[in-house]
Amino acid sequence: MHRLLLVAMTAMFAQACNPPCRAVCRKVLFECGDLGSERVALDECEVSCLRQEALYEEWDNEEKQELFDEHKRCVARSSCDEIADGECYDGYEELFVF
User: Fold this and answer.
1) What's the pLDDT band for 35 if we cut at 50, 70, 90?
2) First to last CA, the chain
3) Domains of the chain, residue spans
C-alpha cells in the first residue's frame, strides 16, 4: 500500500515539475526511436536544449521560458505516437522558428 502511494505521488510530482533536458532528449532519441529525424547525439541534444533555456533566461523572456518548460513537460507526458503526430510541436511554433 505504501509503495503504491509513493509511486502515485512520484508520478504526480513528475508531471508538475520541469523535466531536465537530458530526460527529454533521452525520450525523443531512445525511447521513441529518434522519431525519424537525423540521428543526434544525446549530449548534442542536451546542450542545444540547455542553450535554448539559457537564451530565454538571458533575454528575461518569462513567456518563452514557460512555453519551453511546457513543451518539455508535454514531451515527458506524451506517448511517442502523440509526439510523432506533432502533439508537442503544434502550438509551440514560436519556439521553433525554422
Assistant:
1) low
2) 49
3) 18-98
